[in-house]
Design goal:
By secondary structure, this protein is α/β, with parallel strands linked by helices. The chain has two domains: 45-147 and 269-295, Rossmann fold, CATH 3.40.50.2300; 149-266 and 304-372, Response regulator (Rossmann fold, 3-Layer(aba) Sandwich). The chain has helices spanning 5-35, 59-73, 88-100, 116-122, 149-162, 177-193, 210-222, 236-244, 269-283, 313-327, 355-360; strands at residues 45-49, 77-81, 105-108, 128-131, 141-146, 167-172, 198-203, 227-230, 247-250, 261-267, 292-295, 302-304, 338-339, 345-347, 369-372. Strands 12-10-9-8-6-7-15 form a seven-stranded mixed beta sheet, sandwiched between helices. A six-stranded parallel beta sheet has the order 2-1-3-4-5-11, sandwiched between helices. β8, α8 and β9 form a beta-alpha-beta unit. The longest helix is centred in the first third of the chain and has 31 residues, at 5-35. The chain is elongated and about 115 Å long.
Length: 373
């Protein structure tokens, strides 16, 4: 039976209407996608305030590269303020400048702060600050540091086994909790490796004054020091030790062009900052319940760089053993009987100094530190 012309025409009209409807729906969908997409949010910004420059070898460089790499991974931008002055008025101007650029969290990259800085932070309750200290905190700041003393102890072991003169050196800025904690751990390591060794410490009274650091190394050389380590921002000590022919453990990174660089104590700042910033993304704030983050060997944050071929087999063996012990959770650097430089007992034979004590109360130097003028 043949379909009439009228029905054939009616069928074509239905197909045309259906196709036209689909075309209209498609156009509507394209229009919505084209003109009603969610606006792209600006990338979050984080500020960094440093005393030196971001490409300055040592502390400033590793801090900047750590934050830069973590921020890049998390889709953030870093705005750096370099060579910053040291007055509270100047800090306020710098903070205000960062705020005007859309920054909501700011990193300070040094360890010792003037008391007035705490009051300044309180003036910015809507900002978040990250400070490289374990000694104090505020509601709008995170106290952030690494347990570098755990590997400074290992540096002491290396120095104690490595020395031939029996005299080991250390260059440090000044006495404060952060410096004392690392210096004491170094001395304990030296003494456990070589109980008869002498440890000579030269102070520079600042984090980064190259001429004082070179003078400190020269003074230690006069004391027959043949192995040393240090805690300064730059690499002046490393260069001076190399020039003097003194083996040394670097404070930041290995210098492969130096014959006398035995190894380096290092912190993984990229991981530290990534953990901090990713926590902020997940929870809306960086601070934890205790307002501080202090991680070390067990968290794979601090480490000793690969050892130079100059390191003795005995030192290699003891370092490997100590690393294995620490991987098992043994943190007995500050355990057992410990006396300070005034012969006051600071730790009993069956005692282990607590994390809280190490963070806040180490305002003394361990017995065995000999200060060089």
């Amino acid at each position: 039976m043949k379909i009439s012309e009228e029905k054939r025409l009616e069928k074509r009209q239905r197909h045309f209407i259906m196709g036209l409807a689909l075309l209209v729906l498609l156009c509507i969908g394209v229009s919505v996608a084209e003109f009603h997409t969610e606006p792209k949010l600006p990338r979050p910004k984080i500020g960094m305030i440093m005393r030196g420059t971001k490409d300055q070898d040592g502390w400033n460089k590793v801090q900047y590269e750590g934050l830069r790499d973590a921020a890049k991974e998390l889709g953030m931008d870093v705005i750096v303020k370099e060579n910053t002055p040291r007055s509270i008025g100047d800090y306020k101007k710098i903070i205000d400048s960062l705020v005007s650029q859309g920054v909501h969290r700011i990193v300070f990259t040094w360890h010792r702060y003037p008391p007035e800085l705490r009051e300044l932070l309180r003036q910015y309750p809507n900002l978040e600050f990250i400070l490289q200290t374990t000694e104090f905190s505020e509601d709008n700041m995170l106290s952030c540091s690494t347990r570098l003393f755990e590997v400074q102890y290992l540096a002491g072991l290396i120095a104690g086994y490595q020395t031939k003169t029996g005299v080991v050196g250390y260059v440090a800025p000044f006495s404060c909790v952060e410096v004392n904690r690392g210096l004491n751990a170094f001395v304990i390591g030296v003494k456990r490796a070589n109980p008869l060794a002498h440890i000579k410490v030269a102070w520079t009274n600042d984090w980064d004054v190259p001429e004082r650091e070179r003078a400190a190394v020269d003074a230690l050389a006069m004391e027959e020091v043949d192995v040393l380590s240090y805690q300064q921002d730059g690499r002046a000590v490393a260069d001076a030790a190399e020039r003097q022919g003194i083996d040394y453990i670097d404070a930041h990174e290995v210098h492969p062009e130096h014959v006398h660089c035995l190894t380096a104590v290092q912190s993984d700042w990229r991981t530290v900052y990534r953990n901090l910033l990713s926590r902020h993304i997940r929870k809306g704030k960086m601070a934890n319940a205790n307002n501080y983050l202090w991680q070390g060997f067990l968290e794979h944050i601090v480490t000793v760089a690969p050892l130079s071929e100059r390191v003795t087999p005995r030192a290699r063996e003891e370092i490997s053993r100590s690393v294995r012990d620490r991987a098992k959770g043994e943190r007995l650097i500050y355990g057992g009987e410990i006396y300070d430089s005034n012969n006051v007992k600071r730790c009993d034979a069956k005692e282990i100094l607590s994390n809280e004590y190490l963070r806040v109360h180490m305002n003394w130097l361990v017995k065995g530190v000999e200060q060089v003028e």
